[in-house]
Design brief:
globular; ER-bound oxygenase mpaB/mpaB'/Rubber oxygenase catalytic domain-containing protein; mainly alpha; 409 residues; oxidoreductase activity; MPAB/Lcp_cat_dom; Lcp-like
Amino acid sequence: MFGVKLVLLLLMNSSNLQPRFKDSPHFKDFWTKGNGSQLIRFSGAEVSFKDFEKFSPYFYHVDEVGDQVVKDIYLTKKFHEASREIESYIRNGVSESDEVPESVKKLFLQTQKIPDWLDYDLLKNGAELCMRVNLDSLISLRDYCLMGGYDFAYLNKPLIITEALKKGAAKRLSETLDFWVNTTRYNALELHQKGYEFAIKTRLIHSYARLSIRKHYKNWDTENWGEPINSWDMMATYIGFSLVFLHSLHKLGNTFSKQEEDGLFHLWKYVGYLLGIPENLLPENKKQATEFFYLWTSIQPPADKDSVLLAHSLLNESLENPILKYRFQRRNLRYLHICCTWFLLDDEVCKRLQIPEVNNRKAFPIVKRTINKIYDKLVSRKRRIKKGNKDQMKVLTDYLNITANSNFH
């Protein structure tokens, strides 16, 4: 009976949802002369609103299985006991005959079932692309994917409500980097391995946050903002890790093969599957991803004051982070990130996020792009993968070391 009511509620909400910002300047500018128009050329997408009603119900759809696991495990025990129990399921697996809550059985039987479409060679190709592009991957994640995401005001609401600003940008970067690195290594997504573990834990963190928002934040505007951390927003987030990430690498002068490109989308499709995102929301390629993304952006207003706070917290992280010893080094790093942000994002987005104007802002990205093109020709793919993995692991270790200190924000 509850399931029927839920379906009716979703249909009722989604029937009211329209591509409400499709005639707004920020939407039209993005898709006619900004990064959106570049994505269309880059992917060969054919964008329209004909499938809007097919996707819009997911604005009010969430991972009910993950939510129930949190209710059954985390909300009935002390946090460390619940975490230990979940880790034992991740490491040892769950079978039909195990005496565990039905929600736990449902979640783990789903994630332990290898989908028919999974191709391990494509996963390997995707992981190799992520490693091969070295620190450009981290520039892309930070200055395009994360910063660009702040321009979508409704997407940011759970971050603001769960007080992400108080936690600090370095901690958020550390967590994102930890997740990204550990899901993009060789064999990381095999059952019970590190990437699989990160996917399951991230899925439950999302559920825990969603339940907390529902319980403690009575002013959540479901009609306009959708459900907290809803499936459609999750789709957009993971398009950030695939399509937007790939576009950023392209803008920075990196080249990639068709196998690597297909592998990257396949990798994030599988991560999305483990996270409980409905499979029909997980794009197979850049054309499909752009067409999906177009529909989603039509329900998102542009940056608001919260977006600006998040953007400046991320920019100023370079000044506050003690990884670099001297103040002038930190100022210089902040300057380079500002240059990359202006280069990778639309000018209008940067203005809305109040990204500071700096001198010679195109110089570093253009030099970087030139060096990348030369480096691609001179250094073997195998060496680039090995070096990229080493350098990315070094950055992750540095971040984990500084954020392990609870006094650092």
